[in-house]
Amino acid sequence: MQKILVIDDEKNILKSIVMYLEGHEYSVQAISNGLDGIKSAKEYLPDLILLDLVLPDIDGYMVCKTIKESLETEKIPIVIMSAKSQQVDIDKAFDVGALDYIMKPFEPQKLLEKIQKYLKEVV
Amino acid sequence: MPKSIKGRLISFFIMILLIFTGSNIWALINFNSLSVSIDNIMESNYRSIEAAQNMIVAIERQDSAELAHMFSESDTTVSNFIENQKIFLRWLTRAEDNITETGEQEVLASINQNYTEYIDRFTYLISLNKEDDPKIMNDYYYQEIFPLFEETKEGSRELLAINQNSMLARKDNAHSIARRAMISTVVVSVLSILFGLIIITILSNKIVAPIHNLIGKIKKIAEGNYNQKLSIEGDHEIAQLAKEFNQMATKLLYYDENNINKLKEEKNKSEAIVESISDGIIVTDKENRIQLINYKAEKIFDIRENYCLNQHLLEVVNNEKLFGLFKEVNEHPYEKRYKSYEDIVVKVESVDKYYRVHVRPIKISNELHYGAVALIQDVTKFKEVDQMKSDFISTVSHEFRTPLTSITMGVGLLLEEIPGKLTEKQQELIEAIKEDSERLNTLVGELLDLSKLESGKMQMDFQNHQIEAVFNYTIKIFKIQCEEIEAEIIKHVPEQLSEVRIDISKMTWVISNLIGNAIRYLPKPGGKIELSIKEIYGKQIISVKDNGSGMSEAMQKHIFEKFSQGKDLAGGAGLGLSICKEIIKAHGGDIWVDSETGKGTTFFFTVPIVE
């Protein structure tokens, strides 16, 4: 089973994403802050990370950058999920190494399509 | 001398006429005296000469007759003698009638005396009988008659000589008269020509000098030197002109001084106004050299007007963006710009201040431009408010989107029946939740767009395009949807349309939004949407017309306001038309609607044509 790490401070979003992805046969770990997220990325070594930009401790850009700069985790594809819609925010996400950017709110099917696409590439 | 020019001219010509008349009279007098002297010659001498000559001939014939009487037998001698005596006496009488010279009288008296004696002696001679004593007769002739004959003849010769000499003298006199007439006529002519020339010179100087004076002063007045006075005495025309001229100059001087005072006053007023305007103002000439800086602008850029007049803008204000604005306006003063202002940042006491700079060309006429003027408004406060507003909207939309995400996710989960099977009614309810959460999502997106457009933050990418291209693209987008409801979209595009300067993606959004709105209210089936373009007065009017249900006048009034929508009509968030309006405004155009309930609606908007 492929592993997905979801980092988002919104527990309702976390809950629904976890439930949805598990429903589609993925192993999911849910983390609600940045530092734990980085730690989990290193220990859990997921196949893909879904990352929110607004987190209670350090922001998503920082998390993304740190994961991408660390040797053990640099290859893990990161998909940003955010309600930020300005082009500067999106550009910044790609600058720090994100693979894709999915705007909140999104259809669960859309999220699933992206995940399937990137995980297929990894495999 | 008369005072007026006319009088002067007339008197001048009269004078010239008099001079020539005088010189002509003088010539006539001379000719007359010449003719008189020739007549004199004829009258006084010629007749006496003729008489003397004839007298000599007659007396010689008498002498011959005498001799014949003495020595021949002819009996005609006496009658011949008497015949010539008559001739002699006739000519003598004529000579006596024409005594003109001195000495002539005495000569004639002696001739008369001698001749009378001569005739007496001859009468005595005839009485002598030659048969008796021819010697006595012969002696008598030689002693008594011949001397008298000689004396008379001599007298006649003398008469002839006197008159011939006198004739020569008169001829000489006539010659001298003629020469004198010639010389004096030449002298008089030359003198009158000289005199005429002098008068012409004096007169023309008298007339022309004041005119020259006048011309000089008028030139000075034309140059703006109104303090001119003409001093021309008299009351002739030029003097009158000078008087009028002086009056005019005085008035001009008065007006000028008045004008200058007024101008000064106006200038001071304008300067005071410009100084007290609370926004910064900078004026440059065409070469971007500073011509005016008001107090506020001095403050903003920490400069002093006195030190930077006529200096290049960049030397004084080191702000590339500001200079760029001036440069563009001065290089293309007659081109319309799409963005009429630019915001610049200036550090004032190490704090960033935001200024909105409007630069406009200063056009004196359609061909001539003086330079450019910049209005520099402090928009720091607005920027802050703006920032707050956009922060607020971004926060709000974020706050909306986060719960929307979990709702969407949850609904997705339920509909995929991951948590468990749903009943038909449950499914129906969840579909409704999904639909409304989608609407809410669209609304949040539009709200964010509108906020960006209103604050001018929306990036506009203006390029030259044909509107028709946008028509074609949107028609394609709605093709399937139209087929489903059996509606049609028709375009009316005239040939040879100009290009317009638009952000093609925003324009597509506007036209799509208008078509999308129209489709919602179309009759099904039989719906018809017409897209058309008209070009007038430097812009294109684009219209989207439908044969849908139309709307009331009250609704038309509020249609472009936020969150307004047809109450009686099927749903749809009310932000679309507000966004359309903002986009069209950003293009420098207008948008309006024309509709009648039950008869359809037409939306119009304008876009400026590329010049």
Structure characterization notes:
The complex is a heterodimer of chains A (123) and B (611). In chain A, α2 runs parallel beside α3 (60-69). In chain A, 37% of the residues are buried. Chain A is of the alpha/beta class. Chain A is built from 5 helices and 5 strands; from the N terminus they run βαβαβαβαβα. In chain A, strands 2-1-3-4-5 form a 5-stranded parallel β-sheet, with helices on both faces. In chain A, β1, α1 and β2 form a beta-alpha-beta unit. Chain B is α+β, with helices and mostly antiparallel strands. Chain B is built from 16 helices and 12 strands. In chain B, strands 2-1-5-4-3 form a 5-stranded antiparallel β-sheet, sandwiched between helices. A 5-stranded mixed β-sheet of chain B has the order 7-9-10-12-11. In chain B, strands 6-8 form a two-stranded antiparallel sheet. In chain B, α1 packs antiparallel against α2. The radius of gyration of chain B is 68 Å and the shape is rod-shaped. Residues 567-571 of chain B have low confidence and may be disordered. Chain A binds chain B through residues 10, 12-13, 15-17, 19-20, 23, 54, 81, 83-87, 104-109, and chain B through 394, 397-398, 400-410, 412-413, 416, 418-419, 437, 441, 445, 448, 459.
Please sum up the structure shown.
Chain A has helices spanning 11-23, 34-44, 60-69, 87-95, 108-122, and strands at 3-7, 27-31, 48-52, 78-82, 100-103.
* Major sheet details of chain A: 5 strands, parallel
- SS content category of chain A: alpha/beta
Most extensive chain interface and residues per partner: A-B, 22 and 24 residues
Taken from the alpha-carbon principal axes, the silhouette of chain A is: globular
List low-pLDDT spans of chain A. Answer: none
List the topology elements.
The complex is a heterodimer of chains A (123) and B (611).
Chain A: E1 3-7, H1 11-23, E2 27-31, H2 34-44, E3 48-52, H3 60-69, E4 78-82, H4 87-95, E5 100-103, H5 108-122
Parallel strand pairs in A: 1-2, 1-3, 3-4, 4-5
Helix pairs in contact in A: 2-3
Chain B: H1 5-71, H2 77-97, H3 104-127, H4 134-222, H5 237-276, E1 280-285, E2 290-293, H6 295-301, H7 305-308, H8 313-316, H9 320-331, E3 341-348, E4 351-363, E5 369-378, H10 380-415, H11 424-454, E6 462-465, H12 467-477, H13 479-485, E7 488-492, E8 500-503, H14 504-520, E9 528-536, E10 539-546, H15 553-558, H16 576-586, E11 591-596, E12 600-608
Parallel strand pairs in B: 7-9
Antiparallel strand pairs in B: 1-2, 1-5, 3-4, 4-5, 6-8, 9-10, 10-12, 11-12
Helix pairs in contact in B: 1-2, 1-4, 2-3, 3-4, 4-5, 10-11, 11-16, 12-14, 14-16
